[in-house]
Design a protein that fits this description.
Elements: H1 4-8, H2 13-61, E1 67-73, E2 76-82, H3 88-95, E3 114-117, E4 120-123, E5 136-138, H4 140-143, H5 151-158, H6 168-178, H7 187-193, H8 204-219
Parallel strand pairs: 1-5
Antiparallel strand pairs: 1-2, 3-4, 3-5
Helix pairs in contact: 5-8
The structure holds FE2/S2 (inorganic) cluster (2 copies).
Amino acid sequence: MSDHSDEQKPLTAIERLSRRAFLTRAGAAGVATATAGVAAPLAAAAVVDSVSQAAQALHENSIPGTVPITLRVNGQMHKVEIDPRATVLDTLRETLHLTGTKKGCDHGQCGACTIHVNGQRANSCLLFAAMQQNKEITTIEGLGSPDKLHPLQAAFVEHDGYQCGYCTSGQIMSAAAMLRESWGPADSDVKEALSGNICRCGAYPNIVAAVQACRRNATA
Ligand code: FES
Ligand code: FES
């Protein structure tokens, strides 16, 4: 038979402490047990949430109407967001700030915007940037540097192959491609090969002299 007087008896301080400690531990264990089943789904939901927030932030930061693309220019990968109608020329100059490539006519008629795509010369004003992913683009900045001029750049300086200089990077990029193409040795071959590059200053004689000097040195 239970002793009621025992249950009614006030607890000592130590007894109260032990009971509270027990209840606290029991409560914590209960909470842990109860939440163990939902902790993993909650964590997964948090990850999904943060991923969708990041995607949303990216979407919100994007300029409406742009598309993300990756271009390889002068050996470097560039992730950019552009208007899907943007040309390579505008992307180089305005997005990547590679202003060595010049805009003349913007219609494929002057050659000022000549670059190399996979080693072939091309008018960058006629190419959609979004269609040049996975290709190797080379601009005048990738051909040589002020410290280490490409032989053609050095020849243009030596032979005064420019006046205003606006057509020069296009002329040099065309001439650099010509060095890899099959052309005869005559001046007329250089003129024909560079006929798509217009020089409004009329520096043609010196341009031809520069290219010929470079070709002679290359075959010497
Ligand atoms: S600017 Fe491209 S050909 Fe004139
Ligand atoms: S050097 Fe001026 S356009 Fe050619």
